[in-house]
Amino acid sequence: MESYIITGGYRLSGVVRASGAKNAVLPMLAGTVLTARKCIIRGAPRLRDVTVMSDILRLLGAEVHWATVPGQEPALVVDPSRLVNYQVEESLTREMRSSIFLMGPLLGRMGRVRVAYPGGCAIGPRPIDLHLRGLAALGARIREKFGFIYAEAPRLVGTEIHLDFPSVGATENIMMAAVLAEGTTVIRNAAKEPEIVDLQNFLNGMGARIKGAGTDVIRIEGTDRLGGTEHQVIPDRIEVGTFLVAAAITGGELVIENVIPEHVESVCAKLRETGCQVGEEGCGRLRIRAPRRPKAVDIKTLPYPGFPTDMQPQMMALMCVADGTSVITETVFENRFKQAEELRRMSANIKTDGRTAVVKGVAALSGATVEVSDLRSGAALVLAGLVAEGITRVEGVHHVDRGYECFEEKLRAVGARIKRVSDG
Ligand code: UD1
């Protein structure tokens, strides 16, 4: 177990570069098993979740390695030509929910798949009924037994699928299953997140015929075979948002590089409401200049292009020190205020009731020992530590390692006092 020790009170300033998007790379890695040819993913972040997905692919028979060419970003190379297995390793499924992304691609390539039921999750029950209903609509026979899900179909057949909710994962899973199906699949009420557009571009690079990602109707013309591809992954908009809030909470000024500004528009708009100046500087650079104390704003999470649920905990940390009272409404996940209890240990004034949190800003947070329960609440606690008086010890940083590449190194380079220590 490792912890962060943070000495608060230092204003951040300088330049920080965002990594590639974790949530784009994970479905792409799963999608590589749709082909027997080599796929190269440039700009993939070196993260724990990426390592776990690579290990899952290796156990299925693929070869996965990092390629480093001087002067170029590291690339993840997957050669799935010798895929032999259709059963996803149980212990790794339990470690990472995103392993269910393999259902669609394995069904397409191998005609069958077995995955363990993903375990409970710190941010709520997170069912997978929409994934399974979508795959069943494409003709998969699905059985659930002894904690495993078995799905098989000699060949999937395209159809019309209407999602009850625009689930990101279900949209991606169904898209990947449909590319090798017979005929046309139409997904209605599809999720519109930028990672879905990136997945479409990746799969089309392999020879798939997908149109409409980024809108709520996605049309996939099935094809018999896919080839290899080389793809540059989009920047991580949640990492960008986290650094924007890091500047805002410390009253600092940061330039963030490797940004697609449109992807973070809802976060920038909220930060402007708090009194921050946020502007594009061209060439994928965004500058934020924060006031001494932010103004309180209300926040409601929604599917893209609404305010992202993955930025809600970080904004809650910011609201803890804002001038005024903020109402935060979480509409995407049922139980995503885990950070509130820990922030209260740091003298924050937060009341939660179901999906609503009321945060009364305080003049100062105080350092304390806090424990991380999931990735984004971990980021929120680190941000709170940056502004708290005295020392904050953030325990359980392995959750943060799942989604932030070189987090403490990047923060230190712009003036934060943060170090990683091994417990005991
Ligand atoms: C993805 C992101 C995650 C982000 C979330 C919402 C990845 C790897 N993860 O997660 O970081 O927080 O989108 O933007 O991309 N639901 C069902 N049944 C289903 C599927 C989902 O009821 O079959 C519900 C979930 O419980 C949740 C909501 O739909 O309440 C949204 O989930 P979804 O969009 O599927 O999120 P993920 O794909 O799991």
Describe the 3D structure.
This protein has 424 residues and is α+β, with helices and mostly antiparallel strands. It folds into 2 domains: 2-19 and 235-422, UDP-n-acetylglucosamine1-carboxyvinyl-transferase, Chain, CATH 3.65.10; 22-232, UDP-n-acetylglucosamine1-carboxyvinyl-transferase, Chain. It has 14 helices and 23 strands. The chain has helices spanning 22-31, 48-60, 90-95, 103-110, 129-137, 168-178, 194-205, 237-249, 265-273, 312-320, 338-345, 375-387, 398-401, 407-413; strands at 2-7, 13-17, 39-42, 63-67, 75-79, 112-116, 141-145, 148-152, 160-162, 184-188, 209-211, 217-221, 229-232, 253-257, 277-282, 285-289, 299-300, 325-329, 349-353, 356-360, 369-371, 391-395, 417-422. Strands 21-22-1-23 form a 4-stranded mixed β-sheet, covered by helices on one side. The radius of gyration is 21 Å and the shape is globular. It starts with a strand and ends with a strand.
Q: Helix and strand layout, with pairings?
A:
Blueprint: E1 2-7, E2 13-17, H1 22-31, E3 39-42, H2 48-60, E4 63-67, E5 75-79, H3 90-95, H4 103-110, E6 112-116, H5 129-137, E7 141-145, E8 148-152, E9 160-162, H6 168-178, E10 184-188, H7 194-205, E11 209-211, E12 217-221, E13 229-232, H8 237-249, E14 253-257, H9 265-273, E15 277-282, E16 285-289, E17 299-300, H10 312-320, E18 325-329, H11 338-345, E19 349-353, E20 356-360, E21 369-371, H12 375-387, E22 391-395, H13 398-401, H14 407-413, E23 417-422
Parallel strand pairs: 2-14, 3-13, 9-10, 17-18, 21-22
Antiparallel strand pairs: 1-22, 1-23, 3-5, 4-5, 6-8, 7-8, 10-12, 11-12, 14-16, 15-16, 18-20, 19-20
Helix pairs in contact: 1-2, 1-7, 4-6, 5-6, 6-7, 8-10, 8-12, 10-11, 10-12, 11-12
The structure holds uridine-diphosphate-N-acetylglucosamine.
